[in-house]
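Hi there,

I know you've been waiting on this one. I reran it after we fixed the sequence typo, so this is the corrected version. Both the input and the resulting structure follow.
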Amino acid sequence: MKNYWLALLVAMAACQRNNSEQPETIARDTTGFCFRSEIQFADCFDIIPHDNYKQIIVFDVWNNKDTLSNFIIVPKNTSLPESLPDHEYVLPVPISSIVALSGTHLGFIDLLNALDCVKGVSNGRRLYNKYLYKRFAEGKIAELGTAESGDLEQILDLAPEVVMKTGFEDVRKNDKRILGAGLRIAYNIEWMETKMLGRAEWIKFVGALFCKEAEADSIFSAIRRQYQQVAGLIVDIENKPTVLSGSNYKGTWFLPGGRSYIAQLIVDAGGDYHYKNESSKGSIPLSFEVVLENLVDADIWIGPRAGSLEELRLMDERYKLFKAYKNGRVYHIDNRTTESGGNDYWESGVARPDLLLKDIVRIFHPDLIPGHKLFYYRRLEKEPSTKTSGL
């Protein structure tokens, strides 16, 4: 572990995170509600400060004329302002209870040292975070499923101050039950950001709910500096490996769109991605034949859902045709997993793009950061075996 992480490890001991790298030392929030966040990279939300309240807007990126969520936060135990802009609800902060229905939300809550506020999750058995899993096993965290199919009565019994869930197109239509019950929903659509740092900046959105905006800003600044420092290593790199991503699923291969965060990660790490100029923010559905034609000679393959090269071959013999398979340069995001199916990539990965970038740079250009041991990614071996990181 690097020396510049040690100070934060001491400060965040209460988080109960084990065997993880941490960003640089951060400033604890001593200014409370008065701190004003500046949103630098994220495009999907904004925090608008006023004298004695703040307006938080989550944009409906699927409909530019609308907002997905629009609410007001005010300090607890204070009087409401006489005049407020249009809003859905008023939320007194800091909150002390939250239901988080996506694992990616937990990484932010962890960094903010607020795990004790989590009262419910979508799938407790697949939690990676040891502290959260322990609380789930002790019955202190409820397993709820999704907001659409989960136990609404159980959510109501928990009486969380906020339900945080992933937003998608027409999500509010699907959330009629939970909205109709009067619960406050904070939609988190970090996955629609096109920049890796834009995704990580959602820590400021989460931090506002806990009245920890200064702390969130400091954490993000440390992560941003580390990300940009690593990205700077490949600015003058000319030899860029070609990259294949994902795998075939039920007849369709979903490749990252050219404006997706995965495509940006590949480019920032000094890789050459065939679809980097494509305009989609999400995935591009393609046939196996098209992917084979365009990417059969890709140097590196990241993200196929398999535990070994042999398991990948058993899924489809045609995978053996790819150059990356033949050369054994195939990597999956399962280096930090639990026996019950938890995967830290889906919890802390969104909040730590600096570590993701280090992994990918180490895979693409091993000589640039030879001391970095793969954190989220793992090179697939021929046969299933105990997972080990490294090249």
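Quick highlight: The CA atoms of residues 76 and 92 lie 5 Å apart.

Best,
R. S.
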